[in-house]
Design goal:
The chain has helices at about 40-50, 115-135, 145-150, 155-160, 165-170, 180-190, 210-215, 220-225, 230-255, 280-290, 305-315, 380-385, 425-445; strands at about 10-15, 25-35, 55-60, 65-75, 80-85, 85-95, 105-115, 135, 265-270, 270-275, 290-295, 340, 345, 345-350, 355, 365-370, 390-395, 395. By secondary structure, it is α+β, with helices and mostly antiparallel strands. Among the domains are: about 1-5 and about 105-135 and about 345-400; about 20-95, Alpha-Beta Plaits (2-Layer Sandwich); about 165-230, no CATH class.
């Protein structure tokens, strides 16, 4: 199976709320973007209109690979942008910045492609399982882009107090998967690290201007330079590692609660996730009510299996809660405790009719639509619905080999030699030989 082959194959519409205020300092827009991450879209708006860092706020991050709609709020400036991949629609004014509390839900519409007839026949049963059992509320591969691009967990550098390593990972470690100009800028700084007076010959280098300005003032103040990065993007580095700890802890919790035969694995960018294919009524009731903490120094962990899973993941990472901090910048960069539900139940789940897939003949495509609360991942719901057809490779869905018998090319046989009609001389010779045989036969009589 495949998803996101076209931007329109993955659509997200944010359900939001904000309190309009005629004299508010924040202009609120509905942002419609394609093939852009939320950070990339906001950075383009900020650069286009000369806005200061942090002046554009949003409710949450939306997927890059698709077409998404979400709110943004711009402080102290009117903007207008109508481009093929980024459009803004003015909605009104507000008195404060937007936060995650301003989202009520996200409605997804996903076209799933490259399905076999066997895949199509199984999806209704799988949807019934999802409605009954829910989906484990993991963070999916999109959260771990730094792993995909070879940067590792930047949070680990920060927790060691190594701001230079963190800065190098973000600014001077080009990804082999990145074909953008930003990758050229990162390659440039990888080759010229420490030569802060240089200017990379790429327009994309402007995004590092504030970092470079800090390093030109003091070439050894890597903490000060790191803090020039947009605050939301800095926080994302800590949240990525926190999300990984949550995933590992919940995976362990399922192992403690369920027998092996009721679980199945699914690879993703940061390792392997476990999902339940069944559960007893008692266990399912526990999971429906359970939450698991996003760990921070101030986290309070109760007793029982959740505590056991927390202790397991901390031991695996050689951590304690007290070590989840950034020395030297505790008040600016910090882990924040939050309880996240273990299960999520997609609402208004609708399966479309299978149709011929024009991009992957002779296979099929299906549209799947559902609503999720803020922070839950639609890609995980799709993976769970089509678990029998999903394979994770380099963060993408790839089609499984066809279940149909392999069609072999017909064997080549040497052409049969056709008997050719005898020529004139051959016929004459044959007649003479026949007459001679007849004479000899007559003499013998």
């Amino acid at each position: 199976m495949r998803i996101k082959q076209r931007p329109e194959d993955f659509s997200v519409k944010e359900s939001y709320r904000f309190e309009p205020a005629e004299s508010g300092a924040f202009r609120v827009y509905l942002m419609d973007k394609q093939k852009l991450s939320t950070f990339e879209a906001v950075e383009r708006i900020r650069e286009r209109f000369g806005l200061r860092p942090g002046s554009v706020s949003f409710c949450g991050l939306k997927d890059k690979q698709g077409r998404t709609e979400q709110l943004i709020a711009v402080e102290g400036a009117d903007v207008d942008l109508q481009e093929p991949d980024l459009r803004l629609k003015y909605l009104g004014r507000a008195v404060r910045r937007l936060t995650a509390e301003d989202i009520t839900s996200n409605r997804f519409s996903v076209t799933v492609r490259a399905l076999t007839s066997a895949d199509v026949s199984q999806v209704a049963v799988s949807a019934a399982e999802v409605n009954r059992l829910g989906v484990v509320n993991y963070f999916d591969s999109q959260r771990f882009g730094s792993l995909k691009h070879g940067q590792g967990f930047v949070a680990k550098d920060l927790m060691r107090g190594d701001f230079e390593a963190a800065l190098k990972n973000l600014m001077a470690k080009p990804s082999p998967l990145d074909r953008s100009e930003d990758a050229q800028v990162k390659k440039y700084w990888r080759d010229h690290w420490g030569e802060w007076r240089r200017e990379p010959p790429f327009a994309a280098g402007r995004r590092y201007a504030r970092i470079l300005a800090a390093l030109r003032r003091n070439g050894k103040d890597f903490k000060g330079a790191f803090l020039q990065i947009d605050s939301a993007y800095r926080a994302l580095q800590l949240f990525a590692y926190q999300s990984y700890l949550w995933n590992e802890g919940v995976r362990r919790l399922l192992q403690l609660l369920l027998p092996r035969e009721q679980l199945f694995p699914m690879p993703y960018q940061a390792g392997t996730l476990l999902f339940h294919r069944d559960a007893s009524a008692e266990t399912l009731q526990f999971l429906r009510k359970a939450s698991f903490p996003l760990l921070a120094p101030g986290s309070t962990i109760g007793e029982g299996r959740v505590r056991e899973a927390v202790e397991w993941v901390l031991g695996k990472e050689k951590l304690t809660l007290e070590k989840l901090l950034v020395p030297g910048a505790e008040r600016i960069l910090f882990f924040k405790h939050e309880d996240r539900p273990v299960l999520v139940y997609p609402r208004k789940l609708v399966l479309g009719k299978p149709e011929p897939d024009e991009l992957n003949r002779p296979l099929f495509k299906m549209n799947v639509a559902f609503t999720l609360p803020p922070g839950s991942y639609a890609t995980l719901v799709v993976k769970r619905l089509f678990r029998f057809a999903w394979r994770e490779e380099d963060g993408r869905a790839e089609p499984k080999p066809s279940r149909a018998p392999e069609r072999r090319p017909p064997e080549r046989r040497p052409p049969e030699r056709r008997s050719e009609a005898p020529g004139f001389r051959a016929r004459q010779r044959a007649r003479k030989e026949a007459k001679e045989r007849a004479r000899r036969s007559g003499r013998s009589d």
